[in-house]
């Protein structure tokens, strides 16, 4: 700045970049824009970071035009200034942002001199019309009851040079000069505002006094400016006189470079303190109508004290605080009980200066070794809950933070947290102020203080006082999550509903405050994994915490950051079931980031060895279990995804090139590497004989979610190949995958053309001789379930109002095929090359499998398919009982009807009479099994709903007679016993 004044005629040349400079753009506008970003980066940087960057400054070879870092900004500024000095160019782009930045301004020497001259002119206007240096004007303005001899003020600088001539002037001249200052009130306000901006950075207490003066000027203008511009107006005279009398003293203290005041500061301090004490005492004795005037007087003296103490520097300030600190504290502490906010605010600022022994901006430093003598005087004010307590709490909090006085911190908390309600509320306010002071500062609290704050907040959450509980809840989001979350989670487990609710609210607020911090979620998972609920195995308590995630999840904006970290944590702790539970509560957001999830899963599985290769390295039970979980955890994540995550055939991560190549290629010749895509991974693990059984099962289940256009051709090929080689493990995996696909995809899977090939392969497997020891029976049960799900899918899709089915539809119908095979008595129709006896046995076994398919259908059919089952299948089975010659097959048909009645209940009402007839026919059957089946069917009918029982009431008479005979003469004891029980039911009322 000084250089700018010494060379007022220097040329202002636009800085042009040299071709060799890689940092500077060739565009002048781009240079200005970049420099603007540079200056903004530097001026908004925190002091400590800026200082560290300066000390470690290294040349930066390239500066990006956008998004410059702190180090790049420093190097850019260094290069810019060097080039500007070499070319004698203007530094306006650098200096102006520094001089006028974020409400702070740095004046030039000329501006300082000009301000002091204007202040002297304004002060000189106050000398006219004032008699000597008495306090008469103050007396008239503030308190008419105060004696003129109470307080005397020093003469201003202007009066020392030139004696007042007010007494010699006429009354009109006095008014004219007095109104001269009033007429320039707007300019006066502008000047004070400028002084505020100049002082705010370096003289914070002085700036606070200036702000109060500026506020008073604005209020005075508003109160008296509405009066007509008439010199005889009494109100206007009062306003002008008030301004003149106050400005006489304000103007003296506002000079920027008036060093003579420094020699008078003791006398000024004493007078201002005397004024505060006198008017404070007077105000307490005055009637209420005069208290407002006394309050204004107190504001005046406090403002003067702020201005005076704020401008003292060095030894003068230290001496003033040393000599008058105790007196200042005693005078101002009593004002903290007042109701006026401005008085409390000003007193607080001055007390802060006295306590911290500095009138500069507070910063963390080692200079404060012990608390000042005035601070213990304040602590007794914390026993009550009033304005004074609020101020003292703030001051003590600032002291503890700046001085890192842990002993003082503990002493204050110990005094308050065990006290009465007011003390406990002040303790919480003390913690609140420390938290907010630390948030506003660059520094951090010591670990012990942070832990104590957290412990006390958790205790306050359990307070019965609603105010304390709510305020503690509001502070939880601003403390270290790693310290507070373990205790907070334990409070959510509390059996006390009030504590549980408060802890839950605080928990949600904390999560919202750290909604983009994945490490916080990891801390929560650790708390749930290691907490008492995890130890006791209480899933309910863990779910109570996880249920709170729903409210938090609505506020999260960037799920990709959180999802990736959570999945990474699962991979690091594959056996941690809490992580999977946590992910299940945010599964909808996993679905929104499926590509990210798939990418992480593939990346993780690529790093895993093939299981057959890693078997040799697993030599302990612990390693074995860890290996299981490490291979299961990617599958568990996939299972959390909704079905829609598998619908995108264009996803290379999900399907690779399969959707394009499968329709045009032989599936057998199309190799799939497990690292290629998620589909290949699932298929590989489902069919890998060396894989863990749990991994194979889960993989096969997840294969069922794969889009049918990809899954069905693969399953068809693998099932046919496995059937040819009798690979039972692969057959089970194929059937499980197909069953899952039919369950979750329905007709979308069923309508695929290759399903017919699957059905034919299943028929072949069902014709195998069943031997339990070789696992064929289990495979055949899988075939039965697969056919049953096909029938269920088909029946669900049928229109219940449909009267008939076309011949073509029946030909391709699975349910029609099942009934045909069940009711066919000709074994020659089977596709087997066996002897007559062997073929007959195989035929019976196959027909029984078909019966089991229909029984399974009755168990699995949902409500939407029940009517179709009744109308399409039941009539055929009832008729078959009359015509089928084989007793075992008739028994199987009766068992089918029994399953229909048992599972479909009142839906069988239209066929209840026919069913009763079938049961009576079976009771007359040849085999014990057939008669027992008839008895059970009759029992099922009798146990049906009332409408069904009423519909068969007439036929039950015939059944009763038959039951009488069977209960006495049937050769089977089981049948006799069953008939006796049925008769007893009929006889009971």
UniProtKB/TrEMBL annotation:
<dbReference type="InterPro" id="IPR011989">
    <property type="entry name" value="ARM-like"/>
</dbReference>
<dbReference type="InterPro" id="IPR016024">
    <property type="entry name" value="ARM-type_fold"/>
</dbReference>
<protein>
    <recommendedName>
        <fullName>ARM repeat superfamily protein</fullName>
    </recommendedName>
</protein>
